[in-house]
From TrEMBL:
GO terms for molecular function: nitrile hydratase activity; transition metal ion binding. NHase catalyzes the hydration of various nitrile compounds to the corresponding amides. This is Nitrile hydratase subunit beta. The keyword Protein biosynthesis does not apply. Residues 1-23 are annotated as: Disordered. Keywords: Lyase. It comes from the Bacteria. Residues 1-96 form the Nitrile hydratase beta subunit-like N-terminal domain. NCBIfam families: nitrile_beta (TIGR03888).
Length: 226
């Protein structure tokens, strides 16, 4: 995995120029969102698997596709990989027959409730959290998945090996590093960790700036033990 998606702190990508508040500039973009929601309701993959599919796009495509083109490309890859459609059906633009998952089809009247409920990732905490508010911790280095080679992780490269302060524990949440690869939810404590900008970037534009990241317990170790 190239980790081209892991863009924080990278030099050479140009300025960020936010667009206006129009959610979709073309009709197909709204349909891309609808397709994504409808297929997620089938229950054949998790949001973590979906994110990892986007990360696995070939570098040329990832760098040149627009936001919603990335969504569609990663969705197509997932549909084929999970056996929901074939490459021939995608090229043809029509199914070869009735899907065995037709009974799980997302109906228009259910969309509002689905969107409102989301996909909560909080689970019961089976053991006490290792770190307390105010404790200083260091993130794992390198920022990689230790369960699956080149697998999905939510620890950004720019924060690897950096020291921050725990400011909150959110209870136990599904571990993306495991869940993205169908290895189980493996829930563990999730912390908000505050990093001084100078710790992340070396020289900060404003020395008082800080970045707060939500990081799983296995991403962290005590500062003194690093």
């Amino acid at each position: 995995m190239s980790r081209l998606h892991d863009m924080g702190g990278r030099i050479g990508d140009g300025a960020v120029n936010p667009a206006d508040d129009t959610p979709y500039t073309q009709d197909w973009q709204g349909r891309a969102l609808a397709l994504t929601m409808a297929t997620e309701e089938l229950g054949t993959w998790s949001i973590d698997s979906s994110r990892h599919a986007g990360e696995r796009l070939i570098p040329h495509d990832y760098m040149n596709f627009s936001y919603f083109e990335k969504w569609l490309a990663s969705l197509a890859d997932l549909l084929v990989a999970r056996g929901l459609v074939s490459e021939a059906e995608l090229r043809r633009g029509a199914a070869a027959g009735v899907s065995g998952l037709a009974d799980r089809m997302l109906k228009p009247g259910d969309v509002g409730a689905m969107a409102a409920s989301g996909a909560p990732s909080e689970r019961s905490l089976k053991a006490p959290a290792r770190f307390a508010n105010g404790e200083r911790v260091r993130t794992r280095r390198p920022a990689r998945n230790i369960l699956v080679d080149q697998g999905h992780t939510r620890l950004p490269s720019y924060a690897a090996g950096c020291v921050g302060e725990v400011v909150n524990c959110h209870g136990a949440h599904v571990l993306p590093d495991s869940n993205a690869h169908d290895l189980g939810e493996a829930a563990e404590p999730l912390y908000s960790v505050r990093f001084a900008a100078r710790e992340l970037w070396g020289r900060a534009e404003n020395p008082d700036d800080a970045v707060t990241l939500d990081l799983w317990e296995s991403y962290l170790e005590p500062e003194a033990g690093a």
